[in-house]
Every structure is written in structure tokens, then in C-alpha cells.
Amino acid sequence: MKKIAKIMAIVLTLALLFTACAPKNPSTGNTGDQSKEVSLRFSWWGGDERHEKTLEVIKLYEELNPGVKITAEYGGWQGHLEKITTQILGNTAADIIQINWNWIAAFSKDGSGFYDLNTLADYIDLGNYEDHLLAQTTVNGKLNGLPVGIAGKVFYYNANTWEKAGVPIPKTFDELFAAAPVFKEKLGKDYYPFDLDQYGAFLMTLYYLEQKTGKPFIGDDNQVAYTAAELEEAYEFYLKMVEAGVTPSIEARAAAGNVPVDQTPGWIQGKYGGTYEWDSAINKFQQSLEGDQKIVTGEFLTGIGSHPSALAKVSMVYGINKNTKYPEEAAKFLNFLVSDPRATEILGTSRGIPANKAAVETLVSKDQLKGLTFEGNTKVNEFIGQGISPYFEADELQQFYRAVIEELGYGKLTAAQAAEKTIKEVNRLLKEKAN
Amino acid sequence: MTKLLKKYEGMLYITPWLIGIIVFTAFPFITSFVLSFTNYNLMSAPKFIGLQNYITMFRSPDFRKAFGVTFRYVAITVPLKLAFALFIAYILNFKIKGVNFFRTAYYLPSILGGSVAISILWRFLFADTGLINIFLGFLGFQSISWLGNPTYAIFTLSLLRVWQFGSPMVIFLAALKNIPESLYEAAKIDGASKVSMFFKITLPLITPVVFFNFIMQLIQAFQEFNAPYIITGGGPLKSTYLLPLMIYDNSFKYFKMGYGSALSWFLFVVIMIFTAITFRSEKYWVHYSDGGDE
């Protein structure tokens, strides 16, 4: 009896081991058979509004297409790239993946990182996209993804705070500067007309420089296009903003810990009068505000130079996993997601203003093209600058931008030193990224 | 058959564990060593580049800063945590009313472990408008920029780990309970004070446990990741940018797996050296009462 028990134990252990090591059987069985259930995974990042609406569309699609099961994988922006990286490399990525535009440059240098959507043109109506947009997601003739939309950085303001201060919302930098002492006097010394975190501050200096010079930050030769003197002037400008109390210092901001702007108490309580934010993300800033505070869309501040300098880029991209088992099914769902009137009506502008023409038509006919995102997007298009290099947002560069602003903000570097360092380091990193 | 089975039966029982350690520990361990001599961006095959990663590493000011910060963090956290754990254990060893309740209460923070949630809580507590500053303001003190000041930020992180002193405390407590009561009685008769009893009797007798706790805490502190990642993001001015954070950024954000591996191996060697030094020093200060040297 004892012996049997022992043998049983061994057999069980072995059985456990083998099942654990065996390759996973596709639970769906025969892939060619249409009557069998198709199971797709769709991953994205975003805020609550986007999550809820996307889940609703998935539910609708499953109702309309019995036999297709879509698993949603979603979360916030922080740490998303790391998650997707591990998944793509470990070959466990979802079938349909929402990616950031610059990830194409990182994951698909030769164009083979994602499924070539040109080969799925029977299922996705590519005619709904402007050619110049598709060109931005095409590598080596392979269409790596569908651009979700164009997003830009916009000046948004907390209307209540400005009202309490009794100052009209500014149209020029001079007016913004003039508001600072009024804020301090009427509302308190921890009130600021505008908030810039490290990255926001860096983008603000670029906004300043593009308006002044008409040049983008990174030129066609993949080098910093500004001279050291120009960068120094922009950094000085930022320091002036801090000194004048227009925006909290980096040290004051860091005191809240490592939190996104929309989650800092200063923003939530309305102590920051405005923020420089992506039009596609502004809704979460509105939602995080306490009480009945309202955000309004501001004008692009002028008074520096004659050139339009709004920063815009392909906001996000939908890609299909190159190893997906069901490319056609994935493409069908993707097409539904980006162009179907029912889906569009649900999604609204939760991912910004769509690039898909059919979706825009739906939104226009349903009178859904309104609100902060749309207003911001319209303003961006009227003031659009030179655009950005695909390497601009690479993580290592972003880390550098933040670091240099921090060193500037804490007084470790002068504006001149920071300018020199920026040119040297950014050029070095750009060269590394391009190889 | 039965004979063969008898012989390897034990092996079979531990196979699940063996496979686990080979797949999840040994394999990555060796792979990372090999990778540390390559340039590997995850997308294309690793390229052998010799010692280049290590050379880049030692030349990098970021690395030197991160190493310095890591060192400072360990130097602050470990002694503070051990001293605190011993202090509380010593108090809890007295026969006071409700001691069991206090033992549980003091152990609670450690159950929460290095979790993400506790780090977020810490971030809120020590934020400029957080509870700690509100409390300080209540007492009439100026509020302190715990996370915004490059000098204080690392202390704030240390404090989180010091606060979680429960597990070394429990071990200390067990050791304290093992000290025979008769020694104290004898000392008391000879007129020894409480302080000299602590330093002459208690401390020498628990040195083996101090030794054990020291090594465990040392290794843990060198590997700290969650707290700086969540609370400060390595800032301000990289004053909390510990080596594990740098390893993570390079490996998973910049796709420099080779460089990340080199950094990991450096960290491993540093921990090894410190552990070895501690072991070497053992004979000078650790007393085993059951050993042959009495």
C-alpha cells in the first residue's frame, strides 16, 4: 500500500511537470474552421474614460460577431512600454496593440516588427486615411500600423482659478507673466498661472524656440537644429518663468513626489491655473479636478516670434502582432474599431480626434466633435509647427530632457551650460538611436 | 525497479524545485553574464563587444553617481534598521502588560513588505502637502520638502525601510529570549547597571543573530527598487537613482540589455564583496556560546 502511494506521488509529480512544460495547446483548436471560436487580445493604455468606452465597443463587437472573443488588456501610461516590450520579445503580445508612434522606430527598424497592414487591405479600408499620415507609420514600404489621430500640445486653463484671480485668460506670454503677481496676491503664494513639470518645461522651451526661429528641435540631418545661443536664451526664458512665479519651480514640484501632473494636489485643487498638455489626454485632467472646476481651451501664446510652433505628432498607432494567429479577424475588428459608426459613436474623442475620415464623418453627423479635445485639436491645426523626429520621444532622450531641466531648475547648471550639454548629449543619443 | 526507484526517489521529489531554480535563477544568471559582454538591443542578435560595457560603465558619470547614492542608501538604512529593530525587540522582551499586542503591532508594517501600495502611501505621507507636513505644521514647525530636496529624499526612502523593521526584530526577540535569566541575576548581584548589562551580556550573546540580520539587510538594501521607483522616480537630481533603477532603465527602457547585464553583475560583485568582508570579520566580533572556543 505504501509503495503504491509512493509511486502515485512520483507519477503525479511527473505528470505535473510535463503538463507545465508542454507547449500550450491552442484552446480554440482548428484555426481554419470558421465555426470555432476565435479569441483575440487587444491591449491599450489610457485613462478611465478610454477604458470604459473601449470595453463597451468590445462588448458590442462580440455581440455582433458571435464566435469572436476579445480579451482586453489595459492600464495606465506609466510602465506600459516596459510591459509591451516584454510581451513583444517574449512573443506573448496581444493580437491588436495600441502603440506609441515612436515605438515603431524602436521595434520595427526594418519594417518587419509588426504585421504589414497593406496585406490586409481587404479587411481594413485604408482609403479612410490621408496618405501623408500612413506614410508616417510606414517603414520600408510596410504599413506597420494605423494612425489613431494627430495630437498636439495645447494650452489649457482652469477657468475657475482665473476667474477667482480676476484676470482674463492670457493670449500672449506677456499677459501670462503679468498674471503671476496677481495670483500670488489674490489667491496665495502657492498659486501659479501655469504648471510645467520637467518634460513640460522642456517642451515649452522648444515651443519658444520654434516660434522664434521656425526651426524644429531635431533637423533632417538628425541633429539638434538650434545653436547653443538659441537654447541658452530659451532656458533663460524658462528660468524667468520660474522666477516670476508663472510656474512652480522644479523643486516645488518634486516635493509632491513622482506623480503625473493630473494627480498632483496642486492641479486637483486648482492651484495651478493651466497646463501644457496633449489634446487627446486633457479629459483625464478635467476629471481629476475637485468639485465643479472647469478646464477651458486657451490660445497658443504668442509674442516671441512670427512662426507657428504648435507641437503635433501622430498620437497613437494601432498595430497588429506580426505573429497573430488570426490576422484577418484582427483586421476586421480593427476596422470596426476605427471606422464603424456605432463604435465611433461610443468612443467619441476618447483617443483624440480620429485620423479616420469615416469616423470623423460619424462624429460630425452626431455632433460629437466638441469639447476640450476637439477645441484643442482645431487650435493645433491652425498653429501647427514643423513636427518632431521619430527619435524625439525615445525614453533615453526623454530622461535626458528631464534631467537637464532638473539640473537647470536646481541651479546645478547655468542656462549656457545646459544649452551646451543639450546639444552634445542629444546629438550623441540621436546618433546611437539611428544606428 | 524498486531499487532504482529507492535510489532516485529523493531526487524525484525535489525535481520541481530543481527545475524552478535552473529555469528561473541559474539560466538567467549565466545568460546575463554572457550578455554583459555583448551589445544586445533585444530586437537583433547580441553582438560580442568584449569589455566595452564595463568600460562605458566606469566612465559614465551617471553610473558613478548611482553607485554613490546606492552606497549612501545602504549605509543609512542598514545600521538604522538594525538598531531600531534591536531597540524595539529589547523593549518587547520585558514583561509588560499586553506585550503580545505590541509585538504584533510592531511586526505589522513588515507584513506589508516592499509592496507598491505601501510606496504610494509613503509618497502621499511625505508629499509637500502630505500628512507628515500637516502634522509638523500643527506643531508649529516649518513644512519640509521631504521629496523635493536632494539631501532629504534618500532619507525619506530609508525611513520607509527602517519602518519595516519587523522581521529582524522577531529574530532579535527570539535571540534575546534565549539568554539565560541567571546571567542577569548574577550581574545584578554584582551591582551591574542596566546599560552595562546590555553591552556586556546581551549584545555579545546575540552577535550571531546580529551577524545574520546584518547580512540579510545588506543584501536587501543593495537591491532596493520599488520605493525609489514609485516615490521619487530616482529624482530629484538623481539623488535617489539607485543602481537597480539604473539597471531597469537601461535594460527595459533603453533596450540596452548588454549594458544592463554588466551593471547587474557589478552590483552582484559589490554585494559579494561586502558579504565576504562581513564573513571575514566574523571571528573578531561574533561569539557562538555553543562553539568550541569557550
Automatic annotation (TrEMBL), chain A:
Q: Which SUPFAM superfamilies match?
A: Periplasmic binding protein-like II
Q: Which InterPro entries match?
A: Bact_solute-bd_prot1, SBP
Please provide the record's keywords in A-Z order.
Signal
Q: Which Pfam families match?
A: SBP_bac_8 (PF13416)
Q: Give the signal peptide, or none.
A: 1-22
Supply the name of the protein: Oligogalacturonide-binding protein
UniProtKB/TrEMBL annotation, chain B:
Q: Which family does the similarity line name?
A: Belongs to the binding-protein-dependent transport system permease family.
TM segments? 12-37, 71-92, 104-124, 130-147, 154-175, 195-215, 227-247, 259-279
Keywords for this protein: Cell membrane, Membrane, Transmembrane, Transmembrane helix, Transport
Gene3D superfamilies referenced in this protein's UniProt entry, alphabetically: MetI-like
Record bears the keyword NADP? no
What membrane topology does this protein have?
Multi-pass membrane protein
Q: What is the lineage of its organism?
A: Bacteria, Bacillati, Bacillota, Clostridia, Peptostreptococcales
Q: A Gene Ontology CC term for this entry? A: plasma membrane
* Cross-referenced CDD domains: TM_PBP2
Q: ABC transmembrane type-1 domain: which residues?
A: 67-278
Protein name in UniProt: Oligogalacturonide ABC transporter membrane protein
GO biological processes:
transmembrane transport
The UniProt entry, under Pfam families, shows: BPD_transp_1
Indicate the principal place this protein occupies in or around the cell. membrane
Top-rank taxon: Bacteria
Q: Where in the cell is it found?
A: Cell membrane
Matching entries from InterPro entries are given as: ABC_transporter_permease (IPR051393), MetI-like (IPR000515), MetI-like_sf (IPR035906)
Which PANTHER family does the protein's record reference?
A: ABC TRANSPORTER PERMEASE PROTEIN, ABC TRANSPORTER PERMEASE PROTEIN YESP-RELATED
